[in-house]
Amino acid sequence: MSTTAEKPAVPDREPGTAGPSLAALGRRGVGRRTIRAGRVRRLTRRDKLVLAVMVGVPTLIQLLLVWLPTLFSIALSFTRWNGLDLKDIKAAGTDNYRFVVEDYPPFWPAMQHNILWLAFLALIATPLGLLLAVVLDQKIRGTKIYQSIFFTPVMLSLALIGIIWQLFYNRDSGLLNYLLGTAGTPAAVDWFGDSNVNIWAAMVAATWRHAGYVMILYLAGLKGVDPSLREAASIDGANAVQTFFRVVFPAMRPVNIVIVVITIIESLRAFDIVYIINRGTNGLELISALVIQNLVGEGQVIGVGSSLAVILLVISLIPIVFYLIRTFGKESKA
Amino acid sequence: MSTLASPAPRTTAPGAIPRKAGKRHYGTHIFLAVMAVMWLVPLLWALFTALRPKADTDKYGYFSVGGTFNFDNFIQAWTQGGFSKYFMNSLLITVPSVVLTLFFASMMAFAVSRVSWKFNITLLIMFTAGNLLPPQVLAAPLFEMFKHLTLPYSFSDSGNLLNTYISVIAVDTAFQIGFCTFVLSNYMKALSSDLTEAALVDGAGIWRQYWNIILPLCRPALAALGTLEVIFIYNDFFWPLLFIQSGDRLPVTTAINNLQGQFLSNYNLLAAGATITVIPTLIIYLVLQRQFVAGLTLGSSKG
To answer: What is the ipTM of this complex?
Structure first.
């Protein structure tokens, strides 16, 4: 079983080299040893300097603009600060966390919404994408056109998706109320405005994009499944459903892992769409939106915003670490 | 393979290879057609609304086909919304970000994949993990870092890095390097090591191995990633929202946040504005669809 680390190179290679990736692996192993041997003899001082710059500059950018801020976020979450003068930063212990958990009304709704968002993507959007991929992987007429249609929303930003669906969901001029026959009557629903339904409306809009994304990844995954596996299963008398769930689906493990991680991360990152609807208030609270409300709002409660950011970070680390272990676990041992 | 929508007889056929009977796909086609219509409706509704003058929708209602269809809303939205400015801003942010991202990521990928040394896996993990973090985690410190970094007013009229394109370009680049490094390093690993060895024997330095040998071979991957990154960065809503305060410096994607207020309840104009912002992505999609899909599946690790 190859890891995702090997997979990506395959699609773009010509068919001849696509199959025997094991051979390529072997070659690579040998090759690297030779280079290592060569390195001792041949890496000049100048080469080492060049390498140091090649590694150093991106690493510095990454440390300075990604990891250092992450550490600062953790540090700031234990302080009280209005964001003005650096001298005003006061230690606050765990006060911010206690405030968020006990006294900050939108916190628990936001947690629930994030979980709901994840459940919706995991149980509806992702399976829908998989279903579309499986259906479109057959030799049916017009499969390319269908693929293009389902894929179109993936090209759009979630902010724009919010606007487009706003037009569709609108109480007075939206198509949905018209199709439901409620347009112009008091029963018409303001899908993005009504705090009872707007989270569902937003998740449907997010599904519109997520399912297409999942579909395209699974289409690539399905193409990579060795056809002889299917033949073997069908010779053994397995029906289509059995073949899919017992043979094809498990064989796509690398893609499955990527999809699981993407689904979780996307649901934690969900921000743009709720922010463009109503800045993540009134039924659309999400942790990510609360972070920003606390940073840019009137009060600029940096400490509270940072403690929310750290909570988001800790939750995000679960799928991230899972993914890293799956992807790099074998390599670092090798 | 066969689907849940397909009729039962096939599942009972034992040893035969069922896929050859490509005719009885009615169920599948109905399913796909229904889904495709559902998928297109929101887009077509926006386009439909955008093509109709406000006066006509007021007169006949939004759910009618009466009246005229023209591009007046597009023209009005373009001028009134200041789209030319926003598109320029998007261009000024996207192009440098993508070029820098690919440049730095390819150097990094070369170093971790073609030269073996102690920390390459560690660095690769750090880069990959960084790309998966939710941006909101870094928002406060980055905002404050940029705010407290004093710059001469000749360089930035805010006196710091806020409200500059550079802030957005820098953070977009830093955030995307991780993903591109991951993808490119996998791609480079799969290239035969004979290539660089031969160069090594000829006395070519590291830079020449990277620039003249490996990079040209990575052209397909770079094209795919480049397309993907153009879309990602063009679609980025969050960083400009955080760093740029002057409305006239926002890129298109973030500027549409203000359109709702600007066009008030003129949904025809709003629809036209939304449609205008779709156009660049649609063009890229139509011209470079293959590259884009290749880019997505190449890494499949975008968060």
So the answer is: 0.81
